[in-house]
Amino acid sequence: xQYEERKFNIPDLAxxxxxxxxxxxxxxAGYVKNFNTISTKLVEYAADTEKxxxxxxELIRRKSFEFDGMRLHEYYFEQFEGGAKALDESSALGExxxxxxxxxxxxxxxxxxxxxxxxxxxxxxxPVGKQFQAGFVGEQHxxxxxTLPIVLALDVWEHAFLLDYGALGKGKYIEAFFNNLxxxxxxxxxxxxxxxx
Length: 197
Ligand SMILES: [Fe+2]
Known about the structure:
Blueprint: H1 18-46, H2 53-78, H3 92-101, H4 105-113, E1 119-126, E2 131-138, E3 150-155, H5 162-165, H6 170-180, H7 183-195
Antiparallel strand pairs: 1-2, 1-3
Helix pairs in contact: 1-2
């Protein structure tokens, strides 16, 4: 099965230019295309694993890089759809944040997002431990919390902010991300996770 590029309805963002969003969407499309190409090649290589051993192992190593790049960008871009909306403090997410983070979640998450290196600041929820897990994923495939559903995904690769803010502009970009975030998307994700328990 070939994956299809998703289309997003992203409004004008404050502090993240249209040009930057367009180029970023182009990178996303590249991940979809590359993942499909790898999948097709692997079917070919599987016909003779001995002969294709080196090529096969190289593609297998790249496979999750491309897949996670595809999927994480889908989580990322849909967070802007519908326009900026503040967190509803009385929602299940708002209440869970209060219980676990006592009001410091956003500052904590910004600190994670400010870490050096290309990657993603991530928030997951663990239905088993009944708690959030916030972390940093290197590139897009290193350091995920296995099986945990994603609540929030913030791309902090340079390509996300270089055009608007330059190489030293990650902090300003992180502020812009939160200024444009539609928290109702995040609330819905969290409600869906709780509903599946
Ligand atoms: Fe990205």
